[in-house]
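Q: Can I borrow your eye for a moment on a structure tokenisation matter? Would you mind producing a protein record, from residues through to fold? Write it directly below this note and I will take it from there.
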Amino acid sequence: MKLKITKRARAEFEFYRTTQLDMIGVDVGVEIKSAPDGFTAIECWYARDTHGKHLPCKEPELLAKVTRSKQSVNLQVRLWAEDIADGMLLQKSELAGYLAGWPDWVFRAVMEQAAKISMESIGFVPGFARADAPCPTDH
């Protein structure tokens, strides 16, 4: 099986590989088929993330780290989105400060979730929770 891993997927994998945000427990949601002659961690991660396929991995520790990091980032995005949607707990400028040095897609993910949460809870999306809001760090 040959996987054509996109540039964006490679960038996301590298972000998850290097981020310090790895707070989800070691065994939470990480199911890895280990094999010395298996696929690389990025191939296994991409196959799972994109196609839902679990491939045997020759780099199980790295795959586990990247998987935990993604779960940790997703949890943090959800928490920030809830705080933005609240309207009082977190403002866009504060969020931009937290996300300095992070990929732009994380800011967009937070704002999109905040908009969804606002729509579900109050029936509309206030300006401070709009997904189309530009990142305050954009120039």
Remarks:
- The chain has one domain: 7-129.
- The chain is about 55% helix and 5% strand.
